[in-house]
Structures are given as C-alpha cells and as structure tokens.
Amino acid sequence: xxxxxxxxxxxxxxxxxxxxxxxxxxxxxxxxxxxxxxxxxxxxxxxxxxxxxxxxxxxxxxx
Length: 63
Fold this sequence. Notes:
The chain is 35% helix and 22% strand.
C-alpha cells in the first residue's frame, strides 16, 4: 500500500505554448513546468494523469 503512494511520473515540456489555449498554459504552470524541455517528477495521481492527458501534444513522459 505504501509503495503505491510513492509512484511518480516524469514529464517533459516538448512544445512551446504560443498559440495554445489559456487553460493549457495554466495547466502547464500547475504541473510546475516553465520552459521548453523542463522535466518534473510528479506524484502519480488521477489528477496529474488528467492534466497529462489534456496536454498530451505538449508533453512527453520522460525516462
């Protein structure tokens, strides 16, 4: 059980945000990504997965 709460996912911002919807820019900011090629390690939760799914064009899962 404790192991499940420690799961993380790494995301990388691979596309610029010019010309995107304002809510997409806010979602990227909520994930803690600021610049192109920024990588963040986030707790794997349904909320984070939802943001990643919404931004699947701009983000990639990093190794």
